[in-house]
Every structure is written in C-alpha cells, then in structure tokens.
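Shipment paperwork, digital attachment
Item: protein structure file
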Amino acid sequence: MNTLARQRDRAEILHRLRRLGPECERRWGRMTVHQMVCHLSDACRMALGETPASPASGIMRRTMIKWIALYAPMQWPRGIQTRPEVDQEIAGTRPTEFAADIAELEALIHRLSAQTRWPASHPIFGPLSHAAWLRWGYLHLDHHLRQFGR
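Attachment content:
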C-alpha cells in the first residue's frame, strides 16, 4: 500500500505534482487546478492541526467507510463532498501565484511526512493512527492528481 511514510511513494507524488501547470484541465469535479493545489495545502494543514475542520463523522464513517477508504484496493470515487474549511469556494485558502502555491504544497507534504504527533482528528474518519494519516495523505494527493491527469 502506498503511503507518504515511504520515500519512494512520496517522491512519486512530488514528481506528479511538479508536472502540474495552470493549463491542466480537470477530468471531473468543479475545482480548477490552482484551487486543487490550495485545497491539498489546506488538507495538509488540517492534518497538521493548523486548520480546523468541522466534523462530518458518524459511526459508519469512523469504522467501515474509513477502513474501505484507507485499505481497500480501489481508487476513491469522484464527487465526495469536502468540508467548507478546505473548499476554496467557501472558506479555503484562495489561490495566489501558481508556482508559489505549488512550492507551499511541496513543503507541506514534507512536513506531513515527517510528522510524528497528530493533533487533529480527521473530520470524517475521526482519530487516525500515524500510519493511517500517512496513508490518507498519499490517497488524498493521488486522488486529486488523477483528477487533473497526473
């Protein structure tokens, strides 16, 4: 299973991220590529405990759906509703300059990968272990990079 804990998987994600450009077209969803970069940065900040996110959890999401999302051998489905705090059209960080926002996301990926204490609970899945946070980070980044053909 791919995870940000593994250097090889992290390098693959960073390579795909560096292939993004402002001209990239989405394959699904409503975000622009620049909004997606800021969304991923906000999600990293949420995992690091720097950006609070309102909970949208229940017993099914914290148990069965969490297990399926993190460990089932399938890609995440399209159209999953995000939390308003990491939605660039509601309360998420607004895009500024594309290269600077990419550099910020790269730095956040490195910080997330090096994190050892997890102050935040995931808004949907609830508390996650160290391994689960790094698995979630890889899967979330992968999902949105695929959204833009990367």
